[in-house]
UniProtKB/TrEMBL annotation:
Belongs to the GDT1 family. This is GDT1 family protein. The keyword Manganese does not apply. InterPro entries: GDT1-like (IPR001727). It comes from the Bacteria. It is a multi-pass membrane protein. Signal peptide: none annotated. GO terms for cellular component: membrane. It is found in: Membrane. It holds the Pfam family GDT1. One of its GO terms (molecular function) is metal ion transmembrane transporter activity. Keywords: Membrane, Transmembrane, Transmembrane helix.
């Protein structure tokens, strides 16, 4: 039961706010809930069934449980670092219906969409180190179904109150914790000496810091694009009322994303020169307007 709950919770946190949840939400706007849940369940079952079979094959080849635990730990660290990386440019998945009907469309979308995804790899990782792979299968599939159901029913409301960044960071912390725990339990005691622990913590810390810095750069670029689009609207204004509305929008963007409440008085160049933190590439595009 502990293994079931562990797998269920890990997949649940990892998939909250992920593209699969938004894909389920998108399908729910076109098809009845029963149809969407049926397609999601079949697609995920096929996808995770394939992962569990692969895990059982790997476990059969490598009989050393300690080795499998080390592999699992490394993979969980990879999942954690992947979850930590935020794609601020990510857009919601579009729904494309096939000629085989709604259920087949949803099954195909989820099966293909989850191939090689962190959830499928997570199911395979857990199954490799578990004495009961079938239990892991039911845990991961049921968790994905619950997450998709939440996306269908209240996902669009929850998403407005809980930022995706917060969910991603919580998932990253969970994955990194399980990765470190598995490594500590599987590695030879000789590798648990202070010098190795400090070296590991240093490498992991550098990786986390690098990802957070990249997140900051991606966020700056996204925020700068918001500003660029607003400036472009000013150039195409036809009335004074419209220009005033866009000026207020520019001021809101400056205050919200750049932390600077600078009035916009008509000059794009003068306004952007007073803002700090604008992405250099976008800054050059703005000055060309």
């Amino acid at each position: 039961m502990r293994e079931f709950l562990e797998a269920f919770v890990m997949v649940f946190i990892g998939e909250m706010g992920d593209k699969s949840q938004f894909l389920a939400l998108a399908f729910a706007t076109q098809y009845p809930m029963r149809t969407v849940l049926s397609g999601v369940s079949l697609g995920i079952a096929l996808n995770h069934g394939l992962a569990i079979l692969a895990a059982m094959l790997i476990a059969g080849i490598f009989k050393d449980v300690g080795f499998l635990q080390i592999v699992a730990g490394i993979l969980f660290l990879f999942f954690g670092l992947s979850a930590l990386s935020i794609d601020y440019e990510e857009e919601e998945e579009e729904v494309k219906e096939s000629r085989f009907g709604p259920v087949a469309t949803i099954v195909f979308a989820f099966f293909i969409g989850e191939l090689g995804d962190k959830t499928q790899l997570m199911a395979m990782t857990l199954a490799m180190s578990s004495p009961n792979p079938l239990l892991i299968f039911f845990a991961t599939v049921s968790s994905m179904i619950v997450v998709s159901s939440i996306g269908i029913v209240i996902g669009k409301y929850v998403g407005k109150k809980i930022p995706k960044v917060v969910i991603s960071y919580l998932a990253a912390a969970l994955f990194l914790f399980f990765g470190v725990s598995k490594l500590c339990g599987a590695l030879d005691p000789g590798f648990l000496q202070p010098v190795w622990i400090i070296l590991f913590a240093l490498i992991l810390g550098i990786a986390v810091l690098y990802i957070l810095i990249q997140n900051g750069k991606r966020r700056k670029k996204r925020d700068s694009r918001y500003l660029l689009e607003a400036y472009r609207k000013v150039k195409n204004c036809s009335t004074e009322e419209e220009e005033q509305e866009i000026a207020e929008e520019i001021e809101r963007i400056g205050a919200k994303y750049f932390g600077e409440d600078i009035p916009f008085v008509g000059s794009i160049v003068k306004h952007v020169e007073q803002l700090h933190g604008v992405d250099p590439e976008i800054y050059d595009d703005i000055k060309k307007l």
